[in-house]
Amino acid sequence: LAFSIHFALLLALIIVFSTSCKAVTLEVGSVEVGYNDSSKSSATEDTSTSINGSTDGHAPSVISTLPIVTWKWHHIETPYLVALWILTCWLCKLVCELNHNVTSVIPESGLLIILGFILGGIIWGADKAQTFKLIPTNFFYYLLPQIILDASYCMPNKLFFSNLGAILIHAIIGTCWNAATVGTALWACYEGGAMGTLNIGPLQFLLFGALISAVDPVAVIAVFEEVHVNEVLYILVFGESLLNDGVTVVLYNVFDAFVSLGGLKINAAEIVKGIVSFFVVAFGGSFLGVVFAILISMLTRVTKNVQVIEAGFIVVLGYLSYLTAEMLSLSAILSITFCGVCCQKYINANMDEKSVTTLRYTLKVMANGSETMIFVFLGVSAIDKNIWVWNTGFILLTIFFVVVFRFIGVFFLNWVLNQSRLIPIDITDQFVMAYGGLRGAVAYGLAALLDEKKIPEKNLMLGTTLIVVYFTVILQGITMKPLVQWLKVKKATHSDLTLNGKMNNRAFEHILTAMEDICGRMGDNWWTRHWSYFEDKYVCRLLMKSDARKHKDPIFGAFHKLNLEDATKYVIEGERKGSLAFIRNYDSASVDFKKKLALEYADFITADVSEYDFGIDNVPVTSVMKNPIPSVSLDIHEQDRKSMPDDLSAHHLLDQHLYKSRRNNCPTYSRSHYNTSENPDEMQEIFQRTMRSRLESFKSAKMGVNPAKKLSKYPKKDSAHKPNGKPADPHRTHPYGDEDFGFSADSASSSEIADHFHGRSTNTPGAGVDNPAFIPEMDISPPMRNPPWQTETGNKTAVAPSQRAQGRLPWMPTNLRHLAPLRMSTHSTDAFVMADASLDEEAPEKKPGTHHTRL
Amino acid sequence: MGSTNSTLLKIPNVEVLMQETGFSPAHIIRLHDRFKALDKEGRGHLCPHDFGAIKELAMNPIGDRIIGAFFSPGKETVDFHTFVKILAHFRPVDKDRPKEPNSPEPINSRSNKLKFAFQLYDQDKDGKISRDELLQVLRAMLGMQVTDEQLESIADRTIQEADLDRDDTISFEEFRKACKHKRFTMFRFCIRPGERKLMLTLCHWSSELQDQHEL
């Protein structure tokens, strides 16, 4: 079966591909976007124009009768071809990904290039000419920006800025070093006679050195994300490759200008100008990016009414920052890089969570798509007789120098950096860094941009660049993984996102700051500290929404994330187990349940409850006042949404009853895989563990192992709360109510509750399959002595409203949710989580006065 | 060199101090200067209000706890020896320190660093971080941004995460284990660049590096 899928896909690929080829062999016109078909034989042109003439639908001249359908190829030719090619490239990726045994050996980028060879070969076989190739304009304007934007937007911010010094040194000095040494060394060899006679001057060699020194982020990410090296190494390589693209382009432009000027006119003044222009272009571009980042952040403050296109603003403005920089002849790559890096924090806080997800996925789709196209076209472009001017000496020496000088440069710069680093970059990391200097499409694009009039040997340079790209991407890419394993490079360690981590991190920071103050001022993190102070005080006020400011605290953020993750998992588990009965019949059942309980246990409600009664009684009134439900509502879920409590009760609820997240928080930036570590096995295991621990808590409850400890908690908590006075928000009073309930529901009558639970869920029509993990437990022990919620591990503040209050309340989803944990603890894990998972997503929408366009 | 020696000679038992803490003479002098600057009345010891006079420290949310860490229970003053010993917790762990089998654990060992952090939480010194103690710290650090109830649930969850024996408190063992699985990077700052660098570190949590909400 697997083979047939394989085969079918290949077939589909070939069909799509041949369509796009056929279309071109039949039809000739100038295909501007994406493909260059200048070298067409005139014979085909004649035949095709004749075909065109006969089938051209839009010719208004001679129609004898009304045509029913016409052939309008020319109308759609360009977009059609573009779309077909995109499809072809993506199918290539699909084919590559079919077999993971292959991708684990050869990186995907290499495979794509190889597939590109094959496609190029087919085209060449059909046309005897190079019909399609990667045109620099398209590459730089349509394919590259989204890759850079995605990379910078997903950049681990803190890591990036804390290593910014090292990254900048590698990107700027390292690139200049590479450009200068490769260029000079090649020229020296040329003078020494290693390459025969070539029409290349020293300046041209330097220009070539500049373009070949660009470490390509696309290639680097593609290789490194499969290797999972430790994050410092990763950010160094990745950040360097991202920034040095910008530097390379600037260097390239400077040298290009020098070449145009000609060797004679270059004097000291011109060289100084060149250096000045280098810095102006690089820093100007970065500055422009920051300006655009500020613009974007401010814009997202006010986009909440147009949430659907909110994410689009970021993409468009990011692209504009790229184009603007290009227009001002500043460094476009640096501009879009800094735009993405700087605005990510603020837009993530400002925008709705859904928009953030949309943006991430949009960027991933675009970046991944164009990355695929770039690699395929790098392969396709190779099949061209014209560019292959073979000069063994030149090619081999280039490869040799590129590798050697990269190593020298990296080792030297790291040695300098290690003098002041607390944790030095160790030798294996340095080696991998140097080895990870993959060249890619940027170098090719720059080489293709060369002007043949100024540089007679353009084709030699282009061919050599391609070979260097193939050499680094395919050969170094393949050997990277074994090398990393062999050198025992420190891998990225996965660590859970934990509240302990967040909290201790914060505490440690405070401690260090205090120690710094005690010992005297101006430490290394003086800047960090003052920046964060300044940011809190001014930047956030300017760039963040006020409510976003409130929630940006990392501890709180971690808490929120953990809760969301848990909630999602529970829903998934519940759905898989098929016990989502609560969706259909929960309301009536629970109303009955509550009424019954209220009657039964009215006696047990202690005086404590009265203290909170006032607040609880107000619930219906205030909630109606706050959220008037319109009399006519077409949206079925409208009412539920209106009466959603705010986030905090959800946090509270989840916090009480969910287990610690076990999902790994993968630190690497990954372009192609968004959710990094989620396999079914893990889910299964989490589920089983959860079940096991719950069963244990049941058992311990039955044996009466540790109820005393639990009981002692309640008074303590109550006393802790009382000084705070009565909370003003009625929703917040719910948690305390249930303590009394859980506490007072004595063991004698708890068996009834258990029976009730059991009976209800099995009698419910359409209840589906109950959680199998619980059924045996329930059957064996109908007379349970202790209600399960008393023994729940995290059940310190239970969350259901008090019985008395619930008896009075008309049923509302809010209350339902609060009661759900009780049910969860006996029967299904998913009962309340479903409601809460949607809660957080919906919460922003319930604000009055907002009008949302729905997708 | 002469001035260095003369300053060093003024400090009593300086040899012992250097032996215990591992600070170099330059560091000791640097700290001694700072100590004298803090001790405005020249009594030879520091009182809590001397620390309180440090402006930045007053802004630190857990500043008073940190000041408290300098004073052993029942004592109102801290002399130079204790001062340096406390600061020695923050020296980087030296890897190439000769391993002497009988030597006591150095002050700047990882475990001692953690112990120092732990006692900032554990104010009643019973060896356990209770829920209330955790709440106090959280309240100080999170400030007004979150409500009491959120704080409580965060505290509960935090305890739940670390609490292995389910006694609803975090003991030092649990605290250490909670830190054990994580990546620790050294977090550095040095005092006054340009002068001899005095590097202070603490084990630093780096699991949040990926967190994109933070700059």
TrEMBL record, chain A:
Positions of the region Disordered? Answer: 36-55, 699-804
Signal peptide residue numbers: 1-23
Protein name (Swiss-Prot/TrEMBL): Sodium/hydrogen exchanger
Q: What broad taxonomic lineage does this protein's source fall under?
A: Eukaryota, Metazoa, Chordata, Craniata, Vertebrata
Q: Which GO terms describe its molecular function?
A: potassium:proton antiporter activity; sodium:proton antiporter activity
- A Pfam family matched in the record: Na_H_Exchanger
Q: Where in the cell is it found?
A: Apical cell membrane; Early endosome membrane; Recycling endosome membrane
Q: Which organism is it from?
A: Cyprinus carpio carpio
Q: Where is the Cation/H+ exchanger transmembrane domain?
A: 103-486
Q: Which GO terms describe its cellular component?
A: brush border membrane; early endosome membrane; recycling endosome membrane
Q: Which NCBIfam families match?
A: b_cpa1 (TIGR00840)
Q: Which GO terms describe its biological process?
A: regulation of intracellular pH; sodium ion import across plasma membrane
From TrEMBL, chain B:
GO MF terms listed in the record are: calcium ion binding
Keyword check for Membrane: yes
One Pfam family per UniProt: EF-hand_7
One GO BP annotation is: protein transport
Query: By its UniProt entry, which SUPFAM superfamilies does this protein fall under?
Result: EF-hand (SSF47473)
Which InterPro entries does this one have? Calcineurin_B_homologous, EF-hand-dom_pair, EF_Hand_1_Ca_BS, EF_hand_dom
- Residues in EF-hand domain copies: 109-144, 150-185
Major localisation: membrane
In which compartments does the protein localize?
A: Cell membrane; Cytoplasm; Nucleus
Question: Which cellular component appears as one GO term in the record?
Answer: plasma membrane
Keywords associated with the record: Calcium, Cell membrane, Cytoplasm, Lipoprotein, Membrane, Metal-binding, Myristate, Nucleus, Phosphoprotein, Protein transport, Repeat, Transport
The similarity annotation says:
Belongs to the calcineurin regulatory subunit family. CHP subfamily.
- PANTHER family on file: EG:114D9.1 PROTEIN-RELATED (PTHR46002)
According to UniProt, the name of this protein is: Calcineurin-like EF-hand protein 2
Tell me the organism.
Cyprinus carpio carpio
